[in-house]
Amino acid sequence: MATPAALHRPRSTWRAAQTSLLSDERPFARRLGAFDWLFALAMVGGAGFALSRYHAYMSVYDQLVLVCSVPAFVVLGWRWKPARLLIAAIAALSLFAIQLYQGDLGRANSTFFLKYCLSSQSAILWMSVLFVLATLFYWLGTLSRSPSGGAIGSKLTWAAVLMGFVGMMVRWYESYLIGADVGHIPISNLYEVFVLFCVITALFYLYYEEHYNTRSLGAFVLLVISASVGFLMWYSIARDAQQIQPLVPALQSWWMKIHVPANFIGYGSFALSAMVGVAYLLKERGVLSDRLPTLDVLDDVMYKSTAVGFGFFTIATILGALWAAEAWGGYWSWDPKETWALIVWLNYAAWLHMRLMKGLRGHVAAWWALTGLMVTAFAFLGVNMFLSGLHSYGRL
């Protein structure tokens, strides 16, 4: 039985206690249980089903990406248990929606579950509402010191991520119902990538929330996601952007399927790092200091998020150069989008260099991360709004 001292253990010792409890010298594969291997088998079976059912719509590269993604998702599920239920729920709801369509896009307006829940537009609207509600509950929990507020916010965020991914999967299928020449992965315009940005940023946050056993950062991270939802709603109303359009020739490439997700994992991680930086600056000044994690924890989250984002953004930049060589005949053309991508990369490269070589920490690192988000936002949106070039197909 736990002693009173153990029950009132300070949060600062939580990670050390967890490490002690989870230490196991056996090889990782020997620590896997029957449920772990059942999950792996289900992932392999799901990929096999997708290949057998939809191989006619896939190029060799698409099939290769699908096959390579299986071990990645298996390891993710092994390392982070909640991801298993999310993956299973996305698959189940997406397949249910596809079954309801029965090959007829018109059923989106006549079938109850499609019209109000599972068509791509309905699911993305649910995602938007759930993210805004999650933001409110996180703030209520933080300001009122209510654990239940944060817990509800966390559950709403999981539900929003689920509906966002389902919306993207169903939108992918809907594009093929419009026409085989129209069908494409839903990451081709600002509407689609803003959905991707929201779910990726939230998913990374949920991982850190569990890893550091704190929900107080949700109030800050969900702010940037809710702002993105606000843009998404405006963009839908003002530009009718939710309509599925054929790909422009420059985007009709399998490179898009790997370049864009890698890019937005980087964007999402940078945004998360910046919002944690805001929390750091507030705590340092005594604002909400008794409700936020320690400065060391905030600094660690900021560093790890930036490092992950930088890694994926580097991969995305390299993939983009390879794609440019195929599409335009050169790896680099100093197009405004490319130039600002380089500025973003150099900014975070300098941040990490100063961190590793000079021990950059504290409020300077936090301000730098926040400034980096502004640079990244201009590279993401500002270039589309104010500049033109080879990437002008993404203009507002």
TrEMBL record:
Membrane-related topology note: Multi-pass membrane protein
Subcellular compartments: Membrane
Domain Cytochrome c assembly protein: 188-391
Keywords of this entry: Cytochrome c-type biogenesis, Membrane, Transmembrane, Transmembrane helix
InterPro entries with a match to the protein in the record: Cyt_c_assembly, Cyt_c_biogenesis_CcsA, Cyt_c_biogenesis_CcsA/CcmC
Record bears the keyword rRNA-binding: no
Membrane spanning stretches: 34-54, 60-78, 85-103, 123-140, 152-170, 190-208, 220-238, 258-282, 303-325, 337-354, 366-387
Annotated Pfam families: Cytochrom_C_asm
Transmembrane among keywords: yes
Predominant location category: membrane
UniProt-recorded name of the protein: C-type cytochrome biogenesis protein CcsB
Lineage: Bacteria, Pseudomonadati, Pseudomonadota, Betaproteobacteria, Burkholderiales
Gene that encodes it: ccsB
